[in-house]
Amino acid sequence: LSQARAGIISTVEVLKVMEAFVNEPNYTVWSDLSCNLGILSTLLSHTDFYEEIQVFVKDVFSPIGERLGWDPKPGEGHLDALLRGLVLGKLGKAGHKATLEEARRRFKDHVEGKHILSADLRSPVYVTILKHGDSATLDTMLKLHKQADMQEEKNRIERVLGAISQPELIQKVLTFALSEEVRPQDTVSVIGGVAGSSKQGRKAAWKFVRDNWEELYNRYQGGFLISRLIKV
């Protein structure tokens, strides 16, 4: 990938190598593949190839997704749980039909209290339903955030809110980032989530940071959070 980014080899060669990992069982390898595909998706979001790279993501990740399934198997280790969350989140964001349908079903049961989602599945389910959700979906997530009695759950929700796609809802998430509902040290995570989720999100987050620069600068002064904000 580094060679492709430097223009030394074709990105097609990178994709061919990625395809060869389709039977890979190791979480660390898939995490690296996921990160690299994320970089490619970001670069291609400004081109006509964005939808095609999402199809590629579905093709590469669906076999391991089918093998892992949604529920833990006897004798599984911690890395298997991490891998399941990574793969389902990747498939869900890419719009994999079966993953999206199951995420919506499990989210509905979770909200209604019928079957609470395990901690490992919450982020992938949340990001999937938000990516393909509407204003009602966002309102439900904000309600879950308000009701959460553990800070870990609040942070989990804050990190994925930016996955929402519609421009007016992206603005709602950015406004939420500076509200009293979010701890000052967590505001950057919400804005970063918006910036990292889509082309529209990046533009909106950049404008939001510029428009609110004085408040953000005064809030963080010269601390590491302001540099992290600029980086994202």
TrEMBL record:
Protein's GO biological process: peptide catabolic process; proteolysis
Pfam families reported for this sequence: ERAP1_C
Entry's Gene Ontology cellular component terms: cytoplasm; extracellular space; membrane
InterPro entries: ERAP1-like_C_dom (IPR024571), Peptidase_M1_aminopeptidases (IPR050344)
Residue ranges constituting the ERAP1-like C-terminal domain according to the UniProt record: 3-231
GO molecular function per UniProt: metalloaminopeptidase activity; peptide binding; zinc ion binding
Gene3D superfamilies hit by this protein: 1.25.50.20
Keywords assigned by UniProt, alphabetized: Aminopeptidase, Hydrolase, Protease
Family label: Belongs to the peptidase M1 family.
Protein name as it appears in the record: PSA aminopeptidase
Organism expressing this protein natively: Bucorvus abyssinicus
